[in-house]
Structures are given as structure tokens and as C-alpha cells.
UniProtKB/TrEMBL annotation, chains A, B:
The protein, known as: Mannose-6-phosphate isomerase
InterPro entries recorded: Cupin_2, PKS_Associated_Protein, RmlC-like_jellyroll, RmlC_Cupin_sf
UniProt keyword terms in alphabetical order: Isomerase
Originating species: Dictyobacter alpinus
Pfam family, one: Cupin_2
A GO term for molecular function: isomerase activity
PANTHER family noted in UniProt: 16.7 KDA PROTEIN IN WHIE LOCUS
Domain Cupin type-2: 31-95
Gene3D superfamilies linked: Jelly Rolls
Keyword match S-adenosyl-L-methionine: no
Amino acid sequence: MEEKINLAEKLTLFADYWSPRTVANLNENSIMVVKVKGEFTWHKHDDTDDFFLVLKGRLTIQMPEREVVLGPGELFVVPRGIEHRPVAEEETHLLLIEPTGTPNTGDPATAVPQKFI
Amino acid sequence: MEEKINLAEKLTLFADYWSPRTVANLNENSIMVVKVKGEFTWHKHDDTDDFFLVLKGRLTIQMPEREVVLGPGELFVVPRGIEHRPVAEEETHLLLIEPTGTPNTGDPATAVPQKFI
């Protein structure tokens, strides 16, 4: 059976940005941690909402009509179909939840493969 | 469109134990916060895994063959079909994710109704 997951410990095991690591499965979803810094690409997911919870740092989620700025302990769900671009000025750690196999860029051609940790 | 969710702020808005509040929807799932203290009932969910992330405090999840003890920043997914009982000696704050409509006791007859906050 699975062990408990310590998110801070998992985040010590890698250093690259914008490359989520799956730490657990929840039904058909992947629970992931990711380190981000800088600007990601504008993208959208037509078939799924996009969950962001900040564990450390500060994340801006830009959308066409507005933006939200998240600190530790703050979450936001980008509704499916809404273009968005995550931006972090400093290194920021996130918890993500997405249906397993969701391309992180919104496009399988440019998405990073799923990595477990 | 939804606003960002500050989990600590949401947790100031209620005081009762074992009564999850839904703070956001993620596809067909409810993202919930809950305050717990004491022993919950033994139960299981045949159709869904059960996600627990400790935000504050300390949670023991008892299962027939073992138990896990979670502190802040630690999560555990109880696989579907596994009997479990959450126990907290001190007031403990959790983030839960479950398919919308999942009875918290595993049984619709005894479950608390879904509450939004």
C-alpha cells in the first residue's frame, strides 16, 4: 500500500522548473508537485479544470480578462477552456491535481511526459 | 468567475468538527476544508479513493492492517474499499478532495449534507 507523502520532502528530490512530478493517484487524477519560476506558455485545457495550490512562493495566473495572485495556502481553479499563463518571479512550489495524462501545455506535442517521484 | 481561495481564511468561518465545507469545484470533484478533533467512525468508500492533506495539526488514519500519522504538508490517499477511521487528538485542519456527492461517512443515511463556504 502507498506510504504517506511529505510534500516538502518530495520537493527536495528535483530542481528543474515546469516539470511536474506525480506523488500520488486519486481515482483517475494525478496529484503532482512542481517547481516553477519565470513565465510558462499561454495555454488552455478544453476538457478539464486546472487546480493550483501554492505551497511556497507566489504565483500569478494571468488570464485574458483578469489575473489572480496566489501565496502559500491559496488555491485557484482555472475553469476548462480558459486561456491562462502561470508566472512566478521567484521560485514557487505548487500542488497540482489533473486528470492523469493531461498535457501540461495543453498540447500533447509540447507537453512534458508524466514523471513519478 | 471564481475568486482565489485562501484556505486559512475559509477555516476561520466555521467551528464545528467533521463537517466539511466545499470551497471550490474541480471537474466532478469537491475541494473541501474540514476541522476535525476526536475519533470519526470507521467507514469505507467502495467507489472512490479518499484524499487527506493536513494543513494544521496532526491526523492519524487508522486502517485494519496499519495506520499513518500525518502532519502539516503531508497527504495520504486511502484506496477505495479500504476501511479507515480518521482520529485527531488536537484540532486538526484538512484539505479533502472527493467526487461531489461522496457521503463523508461512506453511507448516505448518516452523511452530513454538502455545505459551501
